[in-house]
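User:
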Amino acid sequence: MQKLLSDKATTSVEALEREINAEEVRLKFLQKIPTFGYDNLIANWIYLNFLQYFGDDEIRALSGYGLSPQYFEVILKHDPRFVNAYLALSTSGSMYAGMPEKSVKIMNQGLKSLSPWVPKNSYYIWRYKGVDELLFLGDSQAARKSFKNASQWAKEHSDQESQFVGSISAQTAEFLKTNRDSKYAQISAWAMVLSNGVDQKTQERAIREIEALGGKVISTEQGNKIQFPQKDTD
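Assistant: Predicted structure:
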């Protein structure tokens, strides 16, 4: 990967494909090797590799983001409690690589190792999954279940952030229960993408999608505020 980054200015498409294939083989190997108790260290190392991969816009413009889910198969196998990795998976795997089915599958596997208390803020993972299910898979009922679970896990905690997340997750789930095409729920999901946007392109897309649904993004000194349409119509 380091060689790929240093030679990107002169890399041909054919050579780039060979490097990507080699990286895919490496990731499959890393998924299977024994870790001797160093799972977290390996997960962090692969995550740093992913950041290099994802952040190289010039190379990604040529080859795409197809390896993104495979990075997280390795990362979350070794450290399923790595909360920030789930956010990166949702963004890179679903929005950039166009593989929401694979992203959701990886999240479902990771959630088997989690609980409302471990790790901290684990309820966010249900929200990331709900966003992918609602916005990229179009499965509003699966999304409703994910937001409902996010609410239940968050409400196990008494701090202000958890109670707020629990409340808005429950509200989103309720909208999806009565209206599968709820614009309110979709705008709320895109607002989450906007607030967590890892780069300018992600934020710009979220704003476009919110406005297309009839909402409005208002920039303030305290951050972006979302103005919802008056009626939640189909």
